[in-house]
């Protein structure tokens, strides 16, 4: 079953294989967006792979919703770039199904001393009665310090 799921994900434009990194597994989409899934007994987690397939297939709509949350944080000269879809340890630690991780790229990197890195968490939410209310968004803002060369 896992081999079939891995093959399905690879067919969704994730070239090559997942690579083990820090207790998780990563793969890259052609646009350099990283896919992160948890480890399960030395292999990529099957459930994480299934979630990744579903999210990659519906990525455009979900990314649009996440970017709407980022609009108030926008800077005039630059753009938010999706750098990762995380179904691994960080998503679990934040009680999310997955995270969309964005980095701000300044139009003039020479002026950027610290650019924000933002994780938008998607969590399934339900009312106490069990009725689904749709996705719950969790916004976490971090700043990564660095200087452009």
Q: Profile the largest sheet.
A: 8 strands, mixed
Rounded Rg: 16 Å
Q: Specify the helix fraction band.
A: 25-40%
Question: Count of DSSP E strands?
Answer: 8
Q: In what range is the share of β-strand residues?
A: 35-45%
What order do the helices and strands follow?
A: HEEEEHHEHEEE
Helix run count: 4
Task: Give the structural class.
Answer: alpha+beta
* Backbone shape: globular
Poorly predicted runs = 4-15, 145-149
Rounded mean pLDDT is 76
Distance between the termini: 47 Å
Give an account of the 3D structure.
The relative contact order is 0.13. The chain is 26% helix and 42% strand. The chain contains four helices and eight strands; from the N terminus they run H-E-E-E-E-H-H-E-H-E-E-E. The chain has 149 residues and is of the alpha+beta class. Strands 1, 2, 3, 4, 5, 6, 7 and 8 form an eight-stranded mixed beta sheet that branches. It has helices at 2-11, 46-57, 59-70, 89-93, and strands at 19-21, 24-28, 34-40, 43-44, 78-87, 98-106, 114-126, 132-145. The radius of gyration is 16 Å and the shape is globular. Helix 1 packs parallel to helix 2 (46-57). A hairpin with a 2-residue loop joins strand 1 and strand 2 (24-28). Residues 4-15 and 145-149 have low confidence and may be disordered. The longest helix is centred in the middle third of the chain and has 12 residues, at 46-57. It starts with a helix and ends with a strand.
